[in-house]
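Quick one before lunch.
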Amino acid sequence: MFFQQLVNGLAVGSIYALIAIGYTMVYGILFFVNFAHGDIYMLGTYCAFFIFGFIGIETTGGVISVPQFFAALLPSMLICGAIGMGLEKFAYRPIRNGSRLSAMISALGASLFLCNTAMYLFGSQTKPMPKLFAGEYFTIGGAIVSYIQTAVLIVSLVLMAALHFFIRHTKLGKAIRAVSDDQRAAVLMGIDMDRVISATFAIGSALAGAAGIMVGIYYGAVYPTMGAVAGIKAFTAAILGGIGNIPGAMVGGVLLGIIESLGGAYISFGYRDAIAFFVLIIVLCLMPTGILRKGRT
Amino acid sequence: MEESSPMKLEVEQLTAGYGSIEALHGINLSCSSGEMVAVIGSNGAGKSTALNCICGVVPASYGEVLLDGRDILDEPPHRIAMMGIAQVPEGRRVFPRLTVLENLEMGAYIVRDKAVFGERLEFVYNLFPRLSERQRQNAGDLSGGEQQMLVIGRALMRNPKFLLLDEPSLGLAPMVVENIFEIISGLVGSSEVGIIIVEQNAAMALSIANRGYVLENGRITMEASADELICDERVKAAYIGG
Ligand SMILES: Nc1ncnc2c1ncn2[C@@H]1O[C@H](COP(=O)(O)OP(=O)(O)OP(=O)(O)O)[C@@H](O)[C@H]1O
Ligand SMILES: [Mg+2]
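Model of the magnesium ion complex:
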Protein backbone atom coordinates (compact mmCIF):
# COMPACT_ATOMS: atom_id res chain seq x y z
CA MET A 1 0.00 0.00 0.00
CA PHE A 2 2.90 2.37 0.74
CA PHE A 3 4.14 2.20 -2.83
CA GLN A 4 0.63 2.69 -4.18
CA GLN A 5 0.19 5.83 -2.09
CA LEU A 6 3.56 7.07 -3.25
CA VAL A 7 2.41 6.77 -6.85
CA ASN A 8 -0.87 8.57 -6.13
CA GLY A 9 0.95 11.23 -4.17
CA LEU A 10 3.44 11.79 -6.93
CA ALA A 11 0.73 12.43 -9.52
CA VAL A 12 -1.22 14.87 -7.36
CA GLY A 13 1.98 16.40 -6.02
CA SER A 14 3.30 17.19 -9.48
CA ILE A 15 0.11 19.16 -10.08
CA TYR A 16 0.55 21.07 -6.82
CA ALA A 17 4.08 21.76 -7.97
CA LEU A 18 2.88 23.28 -11.25
CA ILE A 19 0.53 25.62 -9.41
CA ALA A 20 3.06 26.40 -6.68
CA ILE A 21 5.54 27.72 -9.25
CA GLY A 22 3.22 30.63 -10.03
CA TYR A 23 2.92 31.63 -6.37
CA THR A 24 6.63 31.44 -5.83
CA MET A 25 7.64 33.31 -9.00
CA VAL A 26 5.33 36.22 -8.28
CA TYR A 27 6.41 36.32 -4.66
CA GLY A 28 10.05 36.20 -5.69
CA ILE A 29 9.63 39.42 -7.65
CA LEU A 30 6.82 41.37 -6.06
CA PHE A 31 6.81 39.99 -2.49
CA PHE A 32 3.11 39.39 -2.29
CA VAL A 33 0.85 36.37 -2.56
CA ASN A 34 -1.28 36.35 -5.67
CA PHE A 35 -4.46 34.95 -4.16
CA ALA A 36 -6.15 34.95 -7.56
CA HIS A 37 -3.71 32.32 -8.79
CA GLY A 38 -5.97 29.42 -7.77
CA ASP A 39 -8.78 30.96 -9.80
CA ILE A 40 -6.62 31.06 -12.89
CA TYR A 41 -6.06 27.37 -12.43
CA MET A 42 -9.85 26.94 -12.28
CA LEU A 43 -10.24 28.95 -15.50
CA GLY A 44 -7.73 26.58 -17.10
CA THR A 45 -10.05 23.68 -16.40
CA TYR A 46 -12.99 25.59 -17.88
CA CYS A 47 -10.96 26.43 -20.98
CA ALA A 48 -10.39 22.73 -21.54
CA PHE A 49 -14.03 21.98 -20.79
CA PHE A 50 -15.17 24.33 -23.52
CA ILE A 51 -12.52 23.25 -25.99
CA PHE A 52 -13.64 19.63 -25.57
CA GLY A 53 -17.22 20.73 -26.07
CA PHE A 54 -16.20 22.68 -29.15
CA ILE A 55 -14.47 19.71 -30.75
CA GLY A 56 -17.54 17.62 -30.01
CA ILE A 57 -16.52 15.37 -27.17
CA GLU A 58 -19.15 14.05 -24.75
CA THR A 59 -18.22 15.46 -21.39
CA THR A 60 -20.13 12.78 -19.49
CA GLY A 61 -18.35 9.49 -20.00
CA GLY A 62 -16.47 10.82 -23.01
CA VAL A 63 -12.91 9.76 -23.67
CA ILE A 64 -10.33 11.99 -25.32
CA SER A 65 -7.32 10.94 -27.29
CA VAL A 66 -3.80 12.11 -26.60
CA PRO A 67 -3.80 14.58 -29.55
CA GLN A 68 -7.12 15.96 -28.34
CA PHE A 69 -5.58 16.38 -24.90
CA PHE A 70 -2.77 18.46 -26.34
CA ALA A 71 -5.21 20.35 -28.55
CA ALA A 72 -6.84 21.52 -25.33
CA LEU A 73 -3.69 21.88 -23.24
CA LEU A 74 -1.85 24.38 -25.40
CA PRO A 75 -4.70 26.86 -25.98
CA SER A 76 -5.71 26.62 -22.32
CA MET A 77 -2.17 27.48 -21.29
CA LEU A 78 -2.08 30.41 -23.70
CA ILE A 79 -5.44 31.74 -22.54
CA CYS A 80 -4.49 31.40 -18.87
CA GLY A 81 -1.18 33.10 -19.57
CA ALA A 82 -3.03 35.98 -21.17
CA ILE A 83 -5.50 36.18 -18.27
CA GLY A 84 -2.57 36.25 -15.84
CA MET A 85 -0.99 39.12 -17.74
CA GLY A 86 -4.31 40.97 -17.77
CA LEU A 87 -4.73 40.39 -14.05
CA GLU A 88 -1.32 41.89 -13.38
CA LYS A 89 -1.95 44.82 -15.65
CA PHE A 90 -5.32 45.79 -14.23
CA ALA A 91 -5.27 44.58 -10.63
CA TYR A 92 -1.64 44.90 -9.57
CA ARG A 93 0.33 47.28 -11.79
CA PRO A 94 -1.64 50.42 -10.88
CA ILE A 95 -0.80 49.87 -7.20
CA ARG A 96 2.68 48.44 -7.61
CA ASN A 97 4.28 51.31 -5.71
CA GLY A 98 1.68 51.16 -2.98
CA SER A 99 1.84 49.13 0.21
CA ARG A 100 1.95 45.36 0.22
CA LEU A 101 -1.33 45.36 2.07
CA SER A 102 -3.11 47.02 -0.83
CA ALA A 103 -1.66 44.48 -3.24
CA MET A 104 -2.95 41.72 -1.01
CA ILE A 105 -6.42 43.25 -0.83
CA SER A 106 -6.44 43.68 -4.58
CA ALA A 107 -5.45 40.03 -4.97
CA LEU A 108 -8.29 38.89 -2.72
CA GLY A 109 -10.68 41.07 -4.71
CA ALA A 110 -9.39 39.68 -8.00
CA SER A 111 -9.87 36.16 -6.68
CA LEU A 112 -13.48 36.83 -5.72
CA PHE A 113 -14.07 38.55 -9.04
CA LEU A 114 -12.76 35.65 -11.12
CA CYS A 115 -14.54 33.02 -9.07
CA ASN A 116 -17.86 34.82 -9.16
CA THR A 117 -17.56 35.67 -12.83
CA ALA A 118 -17.07 31.95 -13.46
CA MET A 119 -20.17 31.16 -11.39
CA TYR A 120 -22.17 33.75 -13.27
CA LEU A 121 -21.03 32.66 -16.72
CA PHE A 122 -20.73 28.90 -16.28
CA GLY A 123 -23.13 28.16 -13.42
CA SER A 124 -22.12 27.10 -9.95
CA GLN A 125 -22.84 23.39 -10.26
CA THR A 126 -20.13 20.83 -10.88
CA LYS A 127 -19.78 19.76 -14.51
CA PRO A 128 -18.31 16.48 -15.68
CA MET A 129 -15.10 16.36 -17.69
CA PRO A 130 -14.18 13.69 -20.20
CA LYS A 131 -11.45 11.18 -19.43
CA LEU A 132 -8.07 10.70 -20.99
CA PHE A 133 -7.67 6.94 -21.50
CA ALA A 134 -10.64 4.83 -20.41
CA GLY A 135 -9.25 3.84 -17.05
CA GLU A 136 -6.35 1.76 -18.39
CA TYR A 137 -3.51 0.99 -16.03
CA PHE A 138 -0.43 -1.10 -15.50
CA THR A 139 1.14 -2.43 -12.33
CA ILE A 140 4.62 -1.95 -10.95
CA GLY A 141 5.63 -3.76 -7.77
CA GLY A 142 2.01 -4.36 -6.82
CA ALA A 143 0.99 -0.74 -7.25
CA ILE A 144 -1.63 0.21 -9.79
CA VAL A 145 -0.45 3.03 -12.01
CA SER A 146 -3.11 4.41 -14.28
CA TYR A 147 -2.25 5.81 -17.70
CA ILE A 148 -3.68 9.14 -16.67
CA GLN A 149 -1.38 9.29 -13.65
CA THR A 150 1.53 8.54 -15.92
CA ALA A 151 0.42 11.23 -18.33
CA VAL A 152 0.03 13.80 -15.54
CA LEU A 153 3.49 13.00 -14.27
CA ILE A 154 5.13 13.14 -17.69
CA VAL A 155 3.43 16.38 -18.75
CA SER A 156 4.26 18.01 -15.41
CA LEU A 157 7.87 16.93 -15.57
CA VAL A 158 8.26 18.14 -19.15
CA LEU A 159 6.72 21.52 -18.26
CA MET A 160 8.93 21.88 -15.21
CA ALA A 161 12.02 20.90 -17.18
CA ALA A 162 11.09 23.47 -19.83
CA LEU A 163 10.63 26.11 -17.16
CA HIS A 164 13.93 25.20 -15.59
CA PHE A 165 15.68 25.55 -18.93
CA PHE A 166 13.95 28.86 -19.59
CA ILE A 167 14.87 30.32 -16.20
CA ARG A 168 18.46 29.07 -16.29
CA HIS A 169 19.46 29.64 -19.87
CA THR A 170 17.42 32.29 -21.66
CA LYS A 171 17.99 35.99 -21.44
CA LEU A 172 14.49 36.71 -20.15
CA GLY A 173 14.81 33.89 -17.63
CA LYS A 174 18.05 35.33 -16.33
CA ALA A 175 16.45 38.77 -16.18
CA ILE A 176 13.64 37.32 -14.06
CA ARG A 177 16.23 35.93 -11.64
CA ALA A 178 18.14 39.21 -11.66
CA VAL A 179 15.00 41.17 -10.79
CA SER A 180 14.25 38.70 -8.03
CA ASP A 181 17.80 39.20 -6.67
CA ASP A 182 17.93 42.99 -6.84
CA GLN A 183 15.22 44.99 -8.51
CA ARG A 184 16.97 48.34 -8.39
CA ALA A 185 20.20 46.97 -9.84
CA ALA A 186 18.25 45.13 -12.55
CA VAL A 187 16.50 48.28 -13.68
CA LEU A 188 19.86 50.03 -13.94
CA MET A 189 20.91 47.33 -16.47
CA GLY A 190 18.14 48.44 -18.81
CA ILE A 191 15.80 45.61 -17.82
CA ASP A 192 12.19 46.65 -18.30
CA MET A 193 10.42 45.73 -15.07
CA ASP A 194 6.97 45.78 -16.64
CA ARG A 195 8.04 43.25 -19.20
CA VAL A 196 9.66 40.96 -16.66
CA ILE A 197 6.66 41.10 -14.35
CA SER A 198 4.27 40.45 -17.24
CA ALA A 199 6.31 37.45 -18.31
CA THR A 200 6.35 36.13 -14.77
CA PHE A 201 2.58 36.26 -14.54
CA ALA A 202 2.18 34.73 -17.99
CA ILE A 203 4.43 31.78 -17.18
CA GLY A 204 2.97 31.09 -13.74
CA SER A 205 -0.58 31.36 -15.06
CA ALA A 206 0.08 29.14 -18.06
CA LEU A 207 1.44 26.45 -15.75
CA ALA A 208 -1.58 26.82 -13.47
CA GLY A 209 -3.77 26.42 -16.56
CA ALA A 210 -1.98 23.21 -17.44
CA ALA A 211 -2.51 21.98 -13.90
CA GLY A 212 -6.18 22.91 -14.17
CA ILE A 213 -6.85 20.85 -17.25
CA MET A 214 -4.99 17.85 -15.88
CA VAL A 215 -6.90 17.95 -12.60
CA GLY A 216 -10.16 18.28 -14.50
CA ILE A 217 -9.40 15.16 -16.44
CA TYR A 218 -7.92 13.31 -13.47
CA TYR A 219 -10.93 13.82 -11.21
CA GLY A 220 -13.45 14.21 -14.04
CA ALA A 221 -15.00 17.40 -12.71
CA VAL A 222 -14.94 21.19 -13.02
CA TYR A 223 -16.59 23.81 -10.74
CA PRO A 224 -16.01 27.52 -10.04
CA THR A 225 -14.69 27.19 -6.50
CA MET A 226 -12.18 24.45 -7.28
CA GLY A 227 -9.35 26.99 -7.16
CA ALA A 228 -9.70 27.71 -3.47
CA VAL A 229 -8.48 24.45 -1.95
CA ALA A 230 -6.00 23.66 -4.72
CA GLY A 231 -4.70 27.21 -4.40
CA ILE A 232 -4.11 26.92 -0.67
CA LYS A 233 -2.43 23.57 -1.11
CA ALA A 234 -0.12 24.84 -3.82
CA PHE A 235 0.61 27.87 -1.67
CA THR A 236 1.53 25.47 1.14
CA ALA A 237 3.81 23.66 -1.29
CA ALA A 238 5.47 26.97 -2.19
CA ILE A 239 6.02 27.77 1.49
CA LEU A 240 7.30 24.26 2.09
CA GLY A 241 9.94 24.70 -0.60
CA GLY A 242 10.80 28.21 0.55
CA ILE A 243 8.71 30.93 -1.05
CA GLY A 244 10.53 32.67 -3.90
CA ASN A 245 12.47 29.53 -4.72
CA ILE A 246 11.39 27.84 -7.97
CA PRO A 247 13.04 24.43 -7.52
CA GLY A 248 11.74 24.60 -3.96
CA ALA A 249 8.17 24.93 -5.22
CA MET A 250 8.62 21.86 -7.40
CA VAL A 251 10.03 19.79 -4.55
CA GLY A 252 7.49 21.21 -2.10
CA GLY A 253 4.58 20.30 -4.39
CA VAL A 254 5.64 16.72 -4.88
CA LEU A 255 6.42 16.34 -1.19
CA LEU A 256 3.05 17.73 -0.15
CA GLY A 257 1.26 15.40 -2.55
CA ILE A 258 3.04 12.42 -1.07
CA ILE A 259 2.52 13.48 2.57
CA GLU A 260 -1.14 14.04 1.89
CA SER A 261 -1.59 10.75 0.14
CA LEU A 262 0.23 8.76 2.81
CA GLY A 263 -1.58 10.63 5.57
CA GLY A 264 -4.91 9.96 3.87
CA ALA A 265 -4.15 6.26 3.73
CA TYR A 266 -2.58 5.71 7.14
CA ILE A 267 -4.50 8.21 9.25
CA SER A 268 -7.85 8.77 7.64
CA PHE A 269 -8.95 9.67 4.16
CA GLY A 270 -11.28 12.28 5.61
CA TYR A 271 -8.32 14.20 6.99
CA ARG A 272 -6.54 14.47 3.65
CA ASP A 273 -7.18 18.19 3.24
CA ALA A 274 -6.55 18.89 6.90
CA ILE A 275 -3.14 17.28 6.58
CA ALA A 276 -2.05 19.90 4.05
CA PHE A 277 -3.03 22.70 6.40
CA PHE A 278 -1.36 20.95 9.29
CA VAL A 279 1.82 20.86 7.19
CA LEU A 280 1.42 24.56 6.42
CA ILE A 281 1.18 25.44 10.10
CA ILE A 282 4.12 23.23 11.08
CA VAL A 283 6.32 24.63 8.34
CA LEU A 284 5.40 28.23 9.17
CA CYS A 285 6.17 27.63 12.85
CA LEU A 286 9.32 25.55 12.57
CA MET A 287 10.91 26.39 9.21
CA PRO A 288 9.42 29.64 7.95
CA THR A 289 12.05 29.84 5.22
CA GLY A 290 11.11 26.40 3.90
CA ILE A 291 13.10 23.23 3.43
CA LEU A 292 15.27 24.71 0.69
CA ARG A 293 16.59 28.05 1.76
CA LYS A 294 16.64 30.97 -0.63
CA GLY A 295 20.41 31.01 -1.09
CA ARG A 296 20.94 34.64 -0.34
CA THR A 297 23.44 36.35 1.90
CA MET B 1 40.47 62.64 -28.67
CA GLU B 2 38.45 61.59 -31.71
CA GLU B 3 37.05 64.09 -34.14
CA SER B 4 33.42 63.48 -33.18
CA SER B 5 32.22 66.23 -30.89
CA PRO B 6 32.14 65.04 -27.27
CA MET B 7 28.82 64.12 -25.70
CA LYS B 8 27.66 65.97 -22.67
CA LEU B 9 25.67 65.07 -19.59
CA GLU B 10 24.30 68.12 -17.84
CA VAL B 11 22.33 68.40 -14.64
CA GLU B 12 20.52 71.66 -14.08
CA GLN B 13 18.70 72.89 -10.99
CA LEU B 14 18.10 69.32 -9.94
CA THR B 15 15.82 69.19 -6.93
CA ALA B 16 14.68 66.01 -5.25
CA GLY B 17 13.70 64.58 -1.93
CA TYR B 18 12.05 61.80 -0.02
CA GLY B 19 8.57 62.57 1.20
CA SER B 20 8.61 66.03 2.72
CA ILE B 21 12.40 66.08 3.15
CA GLU B 22 14.30 67.75 0.36
CA ALA B 23 17.70 66.10 -0.21
CA LEU B 24 18.88 68.09 -3.23
CA HIS B 25 18.18 71.82 -3.45
CA GLY B 26 18.82 72.53 -7.10
CA ILE B 27 22.26 71.31 -8.08
CA ASN B 28 24.12 71.89 -11.34
CA LEU B 29 26.83 69.66 -12.65
CA SER B 30 28.12 68.40 -15.94
CA CYS B 31 30.40 65.82 -17.47
CA SER B 32 31.70 65.45 -21.02
CA SER B 33 32.81 62.26 -22.69
CA GLY B 34 36.42 61.45 -21.99
CA GLU B 35 36.29 63.38 -18.76
CA MET B 36 36.34 62.24 -15.15
CA VAL B 37 34.42 64.32 -12.67
CA ALA B 38 34.50 63.75 -8.92
CA VAL B 39 31.69 64.67 -6.55
CA ILE B 40 32.83 64.70 -2.97
CA GLY B 41 30.77 65.15 0.14
CA SER B 42 30.12 63.64 3.53
CA ASN B 43 27.45 61.20 4.62
CA GLY B 44 23.97 62.27 3.67
CA ALA B 45 25.10 65.13 1.45
CA GLY B 46 22.91 63.84 -1.39
CA LYS B 47 25.50 62.22 -3.62
CA SER B 48 23.62 58.98 -4.17
CA THR B 49 20.37 60.83 -4.57
CA ALA B 50 21.89 62.86 -7.41
CA LEU B 51 23.09 59.76 -9.25
CA ASN B 52 19.77 58.03 -8.72
CA CYS B 53 17.88 61.00 -10.13
CA ILE B 54 20.06 61.01 -13.22
CA CYS B 55 19.29 57.31 -13.70
CA GLY B 56 15.58 57.78 -13.11
CA VAL B 57 15.29 55.52 -10.09
CA VAL B 58 14.57 58.40 -7.71
CA PRO B 59 12.10 60.99 -9.02
CA ALA B 60 13.17 64.61 -9.19
CA SER B 61 10.74 67.33 -8.26
CA TYR B 62 12.34 70.02 -10.37
CA GLY B 63 15.19 70.55 -12.81
CA GLU B 64 16.63 68.95 -15.89
CA VAL B 65 18.98 66.17 -16.81
CA LEU B 66 20.22 66.72 -20.33
CA LEU B 67 21.96 64.07 -22.37
CA ASP B 68 23.40 65.90 -25.37
CA GLY B 69 20.80 68.58 -24.91
CA ARG B 70 17.85 66.24 -24.60
CA ASP B 71 15.93 66.18 -21.34
CA ILE B 72 15.77 62.61 -20.04
CA LEU B 73 14.34 63.29 -16.61
CA ASP B 74 10.92 61.84 -17.37
CA GLU B 75 12.20 58.69 -19.05
CA PRO B 76 11.81 55.39 -17.20
CA PRO B 77 15.09 54.05 -15.77
CA HIS B 78 15.51 51.20 -18.25
CA ARG B 79 15.30 53.67 -21.13
CA ILE B 80 17.92 55.89 -19.55
CA ALA B 81 20.16 52.85 -19.27
CA MET B 82 19.56 52.16 -22.96
CA MET B 83 20.59 55.70 -23.83
CA GLY B 84 24.03 54.95 -22.50
CA ILE B 85 24.06 55.96 -18.85
CA ALA B 86 25.29 53.26 -16.50
CA GLN B 87 25.32 53.56 -12.74
CA VAL B 88 27.40 51.37 -10.48
CA PRO B 89 25.32 51.67 -7.33
CA GLU B 90 26.61 52.11 -3.83
CA GLY B 91 27.14 48.94 -1.83
CA ARG B 92 28.05 46.85 -4.87
CA ARG B 93 24.71 45.14 -5.44
CA VAL B 94 25.78 42.19 -7.54
CA PHE B 95 23.03 39.69 -8.38
CA PRO B 96 24.12 37.24 -5.67
CA ARG B 97 22.42 34.12 -6.99
CA LEU B 98 23.57 34.66 -10.55
CA THR B 99 27.00 33.54 -11.62
CA VAL B 100 29.71 36.05 -12.46
CA LEU B 101 29.17 35.44 -16.16
CA GLU B 102 25.39 35.81 -15.81
CA ASN B 103 25.93 39.09 -13.97
CA LEU B 104 27.99 40.29 -16.91
CA GLU B 105 25.32 39.08 -19.33
CA MET B 106 22.78 41.17 -17.46
CA GLY B 107 25.12 44.13 -17.81
CA ALA B 108 24.84 43.56 -21.54
CA TYR B 109 21.07 43.04 -21.41
CA ILE B 110 20.50 45.76 -23.97
CA VAL B 111 23.27 44.49 -26.28
CA ARG B 112 21.63 42.40 -29.00
CA ASP B 113 24.63 41.60 -31.17
CA LYS B 114 26.45 38.40 -30.15
CA ALA B 115 29.75 39.57 -31.63
CA VAL B 116 29.60 42.86 -29.74
CA PHE B 117 28.82 40.92 -26.58
CA GLY B 118 31.90 38.76 -27.12
CA GLU B 119 34.09 41.82 -27.59
CA ARG B 120 32.78 43.48 -24.47
CA LEU B 121 33.26 40.32 -22.43
CA GLU B 122 36.84 40.08 -23.60
CA PHE B 123 37.38 43.74 -22.74
CA VAL B 124 36.00 43.30 -19.23
CA TYR B 125 37.93 40.08 -18.63
CA ASN B 126 41.09 41.84 -19.75
CA LEU B 127 40.40 44.63 -17.34
CA PHE B 128 39.60 42.27 -14.47
CA PRO B 129 41.24 38.89 -15.11
CA ARG B 130 39.97 37.72 -11.71
CA LEU B 131 36.43 37.75 -13.06
CA SER B 132 37.23 35.35 -15.85
CA GLU B 133 38.74 32.92 -13.36
CA ARG B 134 35.57 33.07 -11.30
CA GLN B 135 33.02 33.23 -14.09
CA ARG B 136 31.04 30.14 -13.07
CA GLN B 137 30.91 31.09 -9.40
CA ASN B 138 27.88 32.69 -7.78
CA ALA B 139 28.47 36.41 -7.43
CA GLY B 140 27.29 36.27 -3.82
CA ASP B 141 30.33 34.16 -2.97
CA LEU B 142 32.91 36.66 -4.26
CA SER B 143 35.03 38.80 -1.97
CA GLY B 144 34.12 42.46 -1.54
CA GLY B 145 36.83 43.60 -3.91
CA GLU B 146 35.85 41.05 -6.54
CA GLN B 147 32.24 42.12 -6.25
CA GLN B 148 33.26 45.73 -6.83
CA MET B 149 35.19 44.65 -9.92
CA LEU B 150 32.14 42.71 -11.05
CA VAL B 151 29.73 45.62 -10.77
CA ILE B 152 32.10 47.94 -12.63
CA GLY B 153 32.67 45.27 -15.27
CA ARG B 154 28.94 44.69 -15.47
CA ALA B 155 28.30 48.36 -16.21
CA LEU B 156 31.06 48.40 -18.83
CA MET B 157 29.51 45.44 -20.66
CA ARG B 158 27.16 47.77 -22.49
CA ASN B 159 29.89 50.23 -23.38
CA PRO B 160 28.14 53.17 -21.73
CA LYS B 161 28.63 56.76 -22.76
CA PHE B 162 28.56 57.84 -19.14
CA LEU B 163 29.56 55.78 -16.14
CA LEU B 164 28.36 56.90 -12.73
CA LEU B 165 30.29 55.33 -9.87
CA ASP B 166 28.83 55.56 -6.38
CA GLU B 167 31.56 55.16 -3.75
CA PRO B 168 33.55 52.34 -5.32
CA SER B 169 36.02 52.42 -2.41
CA LEU B 170 33.43 51.75 0.27
CA GLY B 171 34.44 49.01 2.67
CA LEU B 172 37.45 47.83 0.70
CA ALA B 173 41.05 47.37 1.79
CA PRO B 174 43.41 50.19 0.68
CA MET B 175 45.32 47.88 -1.66
CA VAL B 176 42.15 46.83 -3.43
CA VAL B 177 40.97 50.44 -3.65
CA GLU B 178 44.22 51.46 -5.28
CA ASN B 179 43.93 48.67 -7.81
CA ILE B 180 40.36 49.57 -8.70
CA PHE B 181 41.10 53.28 -8.97
CA GLU B 182 43.99 52.56 -11.27
CA ILE B 183 41.69 50.65 -13.58
CA ILE B 184 39.04 53.38 -13.46
CA SER B 185 41.54 56.07 -14.31
CA GLY B 186 42.81 53.91 -17.17
CA LEU B 187 39.30 53.88 -18.65
CA VAL B 188 39.27 57.63 -19.15
CA GLY B 189 42.55 57.66 -21.00
CA SER B 190 41.66 54.77 -23.27
CA SER B 191 38.01 55.37 -24.20
CA GLU B 192 35.39 57.98 -24.82
CA VAL B 193 33.45 57.25 -21.66
CA GLY B 194 32.66 60.12 -19.31
CA ILE B 195 32.83 59.24 -15.64
CA ILE B 196 31.19 60.82 -12.63
CA ILE B 197 32.69 59.38 -9.48
CA VAL B 198 31.05 60.03 -6.13
CA GLU B 199 33.32 59.52 -3.15
CA GLN B 200 33.86 60.15 0.50
CA ASN B 201 37.46 59.19 -0.13
CA ALA B 202 38.13 62.64 -1.57
CA ALA B 203 41.90 62.39 -1.89
CA MET B 204 41.63 59.24 -3.93
CA ALA B 205 38.84 60.51 -6.18
CA LEU B 206 40.46 63.91 -6.81
CA SER B 207 43.78 62.26 -7.58
CA ILE B 208 42.33 60.62 -10.69
CA ALA B 209 39.65 63.18 -11.67
CA ASN B 210 39.89 66.17 -14.04
CA ARG B 211 37.34 68.30 -12.24
CA GLY B 212 35.49 68.15 -8.96
CA TYR B 213 32.43 69.36 -7.12
CA VAL B 214 31.85 69.61 -3.40
CA LEU B 215 28.32 68.69 -2.36
CA GLU B 216 27.18 69.78 1.08
CA ASN B 217 23.69 69.30 2.46
CA GLY B 218 22.15 69.06 -0.97
CA ARG B 219 23.98 72.04 -2.45
CA ILE B 220 27.05 72.34 -4.62
CA THR B 221 29.34 74.61 -2.65
CA MET B 222 32.51 74.41 -4.75
CA GLU B 223 33.43 73.59 -8.28
CA ALA B 224 36.98 73.60 -9.62
CA SER B 225 39.66 71.55 -11.29
CA ALA B 226 40.70 68.52 -9.29
CA ASP B 227 44.17 69.96 -8.71
CA GLU B 228 42.74 73.15 -7.27
CA LEU B 229 40.34 71.30 -4.99
CA ILE B 230 43.01 68.99 -3.70
CA CYS B 231 45.07 72.01 -2.59
CA ASP B 232 42.14 73.96 -1.22
CA GLU B 233 42.40 74.52 2.53
CA ARG B 234 38.71 74.01 3.23
CA VAL B 235 38.57 70.82 1.20
CA LYS B 236 41.71 69.60 2.91
CA ALA B 237 40.28 70.28 6.34
CA ALA B 238 36.85 68.85 5.71
CA TYR B 239 37.48 65.92 3.38
CA ILE B 240 41.10 65.00 3.21
CA GLY B 241 41.90 65.11 6.89
CA GLY B 242 45.09 66.88 7.80
N1 LIG C 1 15.11 56.16 0.60
C1 LIG C 1 15.22 57.25 1.37
N2 LIG C 1 14.17 57.64 2.12
C2 LIG C 1 14.25 58.75 2.89
N3 LIG C 1 15.32 59.53 2.97
C3 LIG C 1 16.40 59.20 2.26
C4 LIG C 1 16.41 58.03 1.42
N4 LIG C 1 17.61 57.95 0.82
C5 LIG C 1 18.32 59.00 1.27
N5 LIG C 1 17.60 59.76 2.12
C6 LIG C 1 18.05 61.00 2.78
O1 LIG C 1 18.46 61.90 1.78
C7 LIG C 1 19.65 62.56 2.14
C8 LIG C 1 20.73 62.34 1.10
O2 LIG C 1 21.04 60.95 1.06
P1 LIG C 1 22.08 60.31 0.04
O3 LIG C 1 21.96 58.84 0.17
O4 LIG C 1 21.88 60.89 -1.28
O5 LIG C 1 23.45 60.78 0.64
P2 LIG C 1 24.94 60.40 0.23
O6 LIG C 1 25.63 61.66 -0.02
O7 LIG C 1 24.93 59.39 -0.83
O8 LIG C 1 25.46 59.77 1.57
P3 LIG C 1 26.48 58.54 1.81
O9 LIG C 1 27.85 59.08 1.62
O10 LIG C 1 26.25 58.14 3.22
O11 LIG C 1 26.12 57.47 0.83
C9 LIG C 1 20.02 62.03 3.51
O12 LIG C 1 19.58 62.95 4.46
C10 LIG C 1 19.26 60.76 3.63
O13 LIG C 1 18.89 60.52 4.96
MG1 LIG D 1 25.47 57.48 -0.95
